[in-house]
Amino acid sequence: QVQVVESGGGLVQPGGSLRLSCAASGSVSRLDGMGWHRQAPGKQRELVALFTSGGRVIYADSVKGRFTTSRDNAKNTIYLQMNSLKPEDTAVYYCNAVIGLSTYWGQGTQVTVST
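Now predict its structure.
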């Protein structure tokens, strides 16, 4: 079994910053990829940022220059530093971990950008 747990969401004003964390634990023999997605009310889940199995980092165009993802391989943990937040960044942020042919999702953490 693999568990994926996100943390760090909350309420922030436009222009502010938040840092999300995501840890994979359990039967994690190796990680082929980890990433961040988000889902706003009434919209489909979309990619935010991810680490590919080859070590590349891919960002959605909407967050380039504002969001940065990093990883701690020893802890099977990734982070998402979100700066210059906008109201349209409001969503539930989900983390996933890819191990072989399986993808494991966390429960999500709410990020609300509002005055």
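The first strand starts at residue 2 and ends at 7.
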